[in-house]
Amino acid sequence: MTPDLFADQPAIWQEQLIPGAVVLRSQALMQADSLLATVAQLLVAAPLRHMLTPGGQTMSVAMSNCGHLGWISDRHGYRYSAQDPTSDQPWPAMPPSLQQLAAQAADLAGFAGFEPDACLINRYLAGTRLSLHQDKDERDFTQPIVSVSLGLPATFLFGGARRTDPILRIPLSHGDIVVWGGPARRHYHGVAPLKAGLHPVLGEQRINLTLRKAG
Ligand code: MD3
Ligand code: FE
Questions:
Q1: What InterPro entries does its record include (predicted)?
Q2: CATH class of 13-212
Q3: From residue 180, how far is each of 17, 37, 154 by CA, in Å?
Q4: For ligand 1, is residue 176 a contact (CB within 6 Å)?
Q5: pTM for the full model?
């Protein structure tokens, strides 16, 4: 008989940071290559672009979207739009594989029936950062947010309900999925400047997929 070395291990390695915030290490690893092929296709239809903040600054993260709604920023503010402002066309449809991955992750974290209608694609290069903010452009805050990290590792900054609360630094690598629901949904968060590196699959980049129910 073959002894099962992992018999006492849980099938899924999950860490709860605070209630509702669950890190699922390597949960997307097996699908990472096909996920990236899918993302490459999406970016042909809706290329990455650097959006303007309402204050007129160019964001260092390059972004695109898929799904019924896409997150956009310009001089008029932050909001969701059914059209890509670059092409005035609808965003590419959300691939079922992506929707299923997000729903499964949300389910593992205790949020059954998650049906994302928006997927923000964030691309980081060396030095790219995302300053501390709250996600509050969505309608229903009882719905979690699922994020999938691909490529170079990043340090995720996880704060509290107030901007001045202490900040936890969480390393996120290729294939990690995080579910942000419950009280964590309203917490301040950001990403520290990306360190230069060479990822075997994605090269000099990090790609983060953020799936939400926005509408
Ligand atoms: C914690 N993106 O697009 S995803 C964003 O890595 C964003 O690109 C980051 O924050 C990135 O808005 C982080 C993880 C994430 C997303 C939403 C959250 C963490 C969150 C909402 C509440 C608390
Ligand atoms: Fe955010």
A1: Alkb, AlkB-like, AlkB-like_sf, Oxoglu/Fe-dep_dioxygenase_dom
A2: mainly beta
A3: 10, 26, 17
A4: no
A5: 0.94
